[in-house]
Specification:
The complex is a heterodimer of chains A (169) and B (736). Chain A is mainly beta. Chain A is built from 3 helices and 11 strands, in the order αβββββαββββαββ. In chain B, the strands form 6 sheets. In chain B, strands 21, 22, 23, 24, 25, 26 and 30 form a 7-stranded mixed β-sheet that branches. Classes of the chains: A mainly beta (169), B alpha+beta (736).
Chain lengths: 169, 736
């Protein structure tokens, strides 16, 4: 049985999440979705691609698209130009996709009763990206809806208040 | 039995049955021309029998019922109790279709859908009790008499009353070779191919590094490693090769159905089906090939009465040919139909606004015929459900060019049309040119590359001009539509002081168009492994894939067709026609041109400019006659004056004189025409049609010869057509 079926069947009441920091946000991704976490890799820029696409990396002979999560969240770029960011490699329907995050954190197993939806006051962009939150001690964990990665198109979600910050090429 | 094991059995059943169904299609169509073949009938019976057995076991009731009915009918056919009529073939083909539909339902949902097959089964049963023969048979217990027209198979069958037993003991004797082969998942093969590709690249890098190390033993080891890798690569490539036959196997059925639909009679000839091709390429040419076949039956082959009126056999012939030609595979679709009438094409193109009257006037016949490949062109007078679905010849050409192939056609009005698709043997590893743009490297498939031009220093920009919003470059006096790669890729223009001191122009060809691409740097060529792009990057039409370069960096592969589309080259080209007076037409010998390559005498090669050629013909020697001082050929109800090139060129000629006894049965004739005058040049063999930039040097120039050039590595004389005629003392004659 594939992990996908396993999790679809088993539910995620006591799911484990890999955590990552992007700017001030703590983001969680179900552990079984994460293939590996690697340090920054040299990247090939893809002209004309959606602006969230930071580039292509060579992952042991496999070409992987790297998504800049800061850009996706419409957050400003880090002062070092993203060279210290980490690659969180996910597997999505047979394709490996890397998410570029600021820092990788530990694996957490939040109690099911701390789960809540994404506050309706959050920006449209955030509400399309995350499926829910967990109220951890001293922090709020945003659970990434991995399906939303496939919907990245470079367009702002309607009503998103943040303006796109165009990366210098 | 647990679910997984069951699923596996079902999967295996699906794969096997689908294969068998393809065979059934072929067998049934073949049976029509040979209705009593006990081999074919036996094979069809066995296949249906197997389907029935397995479906019963797996609990697919509908399939079982249907195959049971079909089996009964087949059993009567096989034993000669019934004859195979068109109705029976039709219903059996319908059974094949129904089984196929049920199989795809099973594949999708794991169960049969709830279609109603009772009508079909009832019709099978009726056909099994076909009133005329069967009633007669039921009345008289001597069915053999009714079938007396074909006594042999019946006798053979009755002489051996247990053929079924013998056959069920070895259910598929023709597949005994199968014991030596294994079924492998295509994905596994694909991933092996890509790993071997990586291995080859790593090997190349290792070899390069080792060059710098002085160690004899290491060198030897690396050499051996290199050899093994090459062998491995070859081996893996072979596992992906499939015979073209695989692709053709569905066509007899398609052709039969289409011919019936259009009331046409078509016989199919297949030649070279064993020619092998990488499976991904086979898949890629499937649609273009099917389209050409459909087109041939829909448009090219005439109705039987029209064919008879034109002096042709009522049954049209469609020939599929496959062969190897210098590292490429050539697939031909040839029909003996009405041919393509350039006048009709011209009128249509004009009506569709694809060309202007002025452009048409300056086009050769060949160029006019080539217009059918333009987007927006479809010659179907009325939209039929076969060819009129918006899929035009332009899509055929685009699909073939995407895999690095070419399509061209030759057609003679009244006698037929031949399409030639040329494709590379394998796609997995391709040579590519690496170019630089704004500090990053991009790969361009070498198949698209024609030449490179470098512009240096202050003059770098001065040959690049703008017409409207479009850039053009003067390449040897001709205007070449040009795109700047950086602009096309969306980079902001550089400030004047940042301009690179040299600009390189890469001249590419795709989609029948020439395109210059200005890049910052050219790095040279590298063998690359094409890898697919992820979903986010795939949306960009400019990239065909990506690859990992020797140093581990990722490079994007430019899609030349996408590039041309992004730059809207067609618009630029249209703009050029209007402002063509801008181009000062220097007649340098370095122009791009097309030649017909001929062999004259034993080994002399001659190139004749295609511009001057109206047609290439093979004429029976017997039709050559003496008229006055010269020889003439009866040609399309006219007389065509013949000139033997061997006489003009004084070539050491072993060929018997034209028309003499003992000469070859057919002579190749190049029909030269300048619009009103025609003349036949007789060669020993028509070798090829070549296109490219050929520098004609004065070496070897002489009477009738402009000079020589090198084609395919051979020194080739370039014929001066007019001078040759003058030399022969025969001005091209007016043919009334």
């Amino acid at each position: 049985m594939s992990p996908e079926q396993n999790h679809a069947a088993g539910g995620d009441a006591t799911a484990q999440y890999c955590t990552f920091k992007v700017d001030h946000l703590l983001i969680g991704i179900e552990v079984w979705r994460v293939q590996e976490v690697i340090r920054h890799q040299p990247m090939t820029h893809v002209p004309l691609a959606p602006k969230e696409v930071r580039g292509l990396i060579n992952l042991r002979g496999q070409i992987v698209t790297a998504i800049d999560v800061r850009q996706w969240l419409r957050l400003p770029e880090r002062s070092d130009g993203g060279t210290s960011s980490m690659n969180v490699v996910l597997r999505l329907d047979d394709e490996a996709i890397s998410l570029l995050v600021d820092e990788a954190g530990e694996v957490v197993e939040p109690a099911a009763d701390t789960h809540e939806g994404v506050p309706s006051t959050a920006s449209e962009q955030i509400r399309t990206m995350f499926s829910g939150t967990f109220k951890l001690d001293g922090a709020l964990l945003l659970v990434l809806d991995t399906e939303s990665v496939t919907r990245i198109s470079g367009e702002n979600v309607a009503g998103a208040p943040h303006s796109a910050t165009r990366r210098a090429s | 039995m647990n679910d997984d094991a069951m699923n596996e059995i079902v999967q295996e059943f699906l794969v096997e049955t689908n294969e068998n169904l393809d065979q059934l299609d072929q067998d049934l169509v073949a049976l029509e021309s040979d209705p009593t073949s006990s081999d074919l009938l036996g094979s069809v019976f066995r296949t249906i029998h197997t389907v029935k057995g397995t479906t019963g076991f797996l609990g697919f009731g509908l399939l079982e019922g249907l195959s049971h009915a079909a089996e009964n009918l087949l059993s009567d056919l096989r034993d000669g109790r019934l004859g195979l009529t068109k109705e029976r073939t039709d219903v059996l083909l319908e059974v094949v279709d129904a089984i196929r539909a049920l199989l795809s339902a099973i594949e999708a949902t794991g169960a049969e859908d709830d279609r109603d097959l009772s009508g079909l089964i009832a019709r099978i049963n009726v056909l099994q009790q076909d009133p005329e023969p069967v009633v007669a048979e039921a009345a008289h217990p001597e069915p053999v008499v009714a079938e007396a027209a074909h006594p042999e198979p019946v006798v053979a069958e009755t002489a051996h009353p247990e053929p079924v037993v013998a056959e069920t003991a070895h259910p598929e004797p023709h597949r005994s070779a199968g014991e030596r082969s294994v079924r492998v998942d295509v994905e596994l093969l694909d991933s092996m191919m890509s790993q071997v590709g990586e291995l080859v690249l790593a090997r190349n890098q290792v070899s390069a590094h080792v060059e710098m190390i002085d160690n004899q033993a290491l060198h030897q080891t690396v050499q051996r490693l290199s050899m093994i890798v090459s062998e491995l690569q070859e081996g893996v490539m072979k596992t992906r090769m499939q015979p073209v036959e695989q692709l053709w196997s569905k066509l007899p059925r398609v052709i039969r159905d289409l011919a019936a639909q259009f009331d046409k009679m078509v016989s199919l000839e297949m030649e070279g089906g064993e020619t092998e091709l990488d499976r991904s390429l086979l898949e890629a040419v499937k649609d273009p090939l099917t389209h050409l076949v459909r087109n041939a039956i829909d448009h090219a082959i005439e109705q039987p009465d029209a064919r008879i009126a034109a002096g042709k056999p009522a049954t049209g012939t469609l020939a599929l040919r496959a062969s190897h030609e210098g590292g490429q595979v050539v697939l031909e679709v040839a029909d003996d139909g009405a041919g393509i009438d350039p006048a009709k094409i011209a009128a249509k193109a004009l009506e569709r606004g694809l060309v202007s009257k002025g452009e048409l006037d300056s086009m050769s016949e060949r160029e006019v015929v080539d217009l059918i490949f333009r987007a927006g062109f479809s010659t179907a007078q009325s939209v039929t459900n076969v060819s009129g679905r918006g899929v035009g010849m332009d899509v055929v050409r685009t699909n073939v060019e995407r895999i690095g192939g070419t399509v061209d056609l030759s057609s003679a009005p009244g006698t037929g049309t031949t399409f030639r698709i040329k494709i590379p043997l394998t796609l997995a590893i391709i040579p590519a040119l690496l170019v630089g743009c704004r500090g990053q490297r991009y790969a361009i498939p070498q198949a698209n590359l024609l030449e490179m031009v470098q512009l240096r220093g202050d003059g770098a920009g001065s040959d690049i001009e703008r017409i409207g919003g479009a850039l053009v470059y003067r390449l040897r006096g001709k205007l070449l539509p040009l795109v700047r790669l950086d602009e096309t890729l969306g980079f902001a223009p550089l400030a004047a002081d940042e301009q690179p001191e040299a600009v390189s122009i890469v001249v590419l060809q795709a989609d029948g168009l020439l395109l210059g691409v200005a890049v910052d740097e050219v790095f040279g060529t590298e063998e690359i492994v094409v890898k697919p792009l992820g979903r986010h990057v795939k949306q960009v039409p400019l990239f065909a894939g990506a690859t990992i370069l020797g140093d581990g960096d990722v490079a994007l592969i430019l899609d030349v067709i996408g590039l041309a589309a992004a730059a809207r080259v067609e618009e630029v080209t249209a703009g050029l026609a209007l402002s063509s007076d801008l181009a000062d037409d220097e007649d340098r010998p370095l122009e791009r041109s097309t030649f017909v390559l001929l062999r004259v005498g034993r080994d002399r090669r001659v190139a004749v400019p295609l511009k001057a050629v109206a047609r290439l013909e093979e004429a029976p020697s017997s039709s050559v006659e003496q008229a006055g001082s010269g020889r003439v050929l009866q040609y399309r109800g006219d007389l065509l004056r013949l000139v033997a090139l061997s006489e003009i060129l004084d070539a050491a000629c072993e060929d018997a004189p034209v028309g003499a006894d003992g000469g070859p049965a057919n002579i190749p004739v190049v029909v030269y025409s300048d619009g009103e005058r025609h003349l036949g040049l007789v060669a020993s063999e028509i070798l090829d049609i070549v296109e490219g930039v050929f520098e004609v040097r004065p070496v070897g120039a002489g009477p009738g010869i402009l000079g020589s050039t090198v084609v395919h590595g051979h020194v080739t004389d370039v014929l001066d057509v007019d001078a040759a005629f003058a030399l022969a003392g025969k001005e091209p004659e007016r043919v009334a």
